[in-house]
Specification:
The chain is α/β, with parallel strands linked by helices and about 260 residues long. The protein is about 40% helix and about 15% strand. Strand 1, helix 1 (about 30-40) and strand 2 form a beta-alpha-beta unit. Helix 1 runs parallel beside helix 2 (about 60-75) and helix 9 runs parallel beside helix 10. The chain starts with 6 loop residues before the first strand and ends with a helix.
């Protein structure tokens, strides 16, 4: 199974467009150029969303396969993780199919979306089938209710596998979608109490992104940064592009390691 990258860039997401920031990459050519720039300054992974001709979020196995192949050719040292985000338009069956048939080794999926119209046994089989195909599923967790839901779905062996990948999302459903480092505490406390040591990462919404990622790194977590979650730098000003955000977080990591 491919391990989770240490510093992943999420450059576009499913909803934002050029009106939100002109440097948000929408076409595959723009995504490839962003991947190159971000890899140079420290990102070893890319969280991939694709858009259709009108700029809308799309889940399509064929398009994903072509995009992953192109990114692997253009930026060979960068891992590529695809998303199965529903955005209110895809069923869990469609999400599962895309995860299993796109040819990607890294896939991000939300447990609450997968379980929205799926029974526990079907969801459990999905996770087992992905593992059998050497697909690393990173499960998105917004709160402890999501974590407990995940625990009911997975076998004990899979749940407590140290290679199992999760993403703690901070600030997504808070007022104004603003995160704070303290938002991570419920997750880390749960891990400590239950002896749970997955391969975990954090992403954070809003102007608190840098502080949250810096805090997560100090606690041993991996990081996801980029315009999907925040357009703002540590100084509170609008960032120029995704590469600027990656560089700032990469420098935080280097500074923490040196200290």
């Amino acid at each position: 199974m491919m391990p989770l990258p240490a510093l992943m860039v999420a450059p576009n997401g499913a909803r934002l467009g050029k009106a939100d920031h002109p440097a948000i990459p929408l076409t595959l050519d723009e995504i490839v150029a962003t991947a190159r720039d971000c890899h140079v300054v420290g990102a070893d992974g890319l969280h991939l969303h694709l858009r259709d001709e009108g700029g809308a979020h799309i889940l399509d196995s064929g398009r994903y396969r072509e995009a992953v192949q192109e990114l692997s050719r253009a930026v060979p040292g960068m891992a590529v993780q695809i998303t199965t985000e529903a955005v209110g338009k895809y069923t869990s069956a469609q999400q599962r199919a895309v995860a299993l048939t796109s040819g990607a080794s890294l896939v991000s999926t939300s447990i609450r979306e997968i379980m929205a119209d799926t029974d526990e046994e079907t969801a459990r089989q999905f996770f087992e089938e992905a593992r059998g195909a050497s697909i690393s599923l990173q499960v998105i967790l917004y709160d402890l209710a999501d974590l407990e839901l995940l625990r009911t779905v997975l076998s004990q062996q899979m749940f407590f596998d140290p290679g199992f990948q999760v993403l703690f999302v901070l600030g997504r459903y808070s007022a104004g979608q603003e995160s704070h480092p303290d938002d991570l505490h419920p997750f880390t406390a749960w891990m400590d109490t239950n002896g749970w040591r997955p391969d975990w990462a954090v992403c954070a919404f809003g102007r608190g992104e840098t502080a949250c990622l810096d805090h997560a790194h100090r606690l041993g977590g991996k990081l996801r940064v980029g315009f999907e979650n925040s357009l703002w730098g540590r100084d509170g000003r609008l960032a120029r592009d995704n590469a600027q955000r990656v560089r700032e977080i990469a420098e935080c990591r280097v500074g923490d390691s040196a200290a």
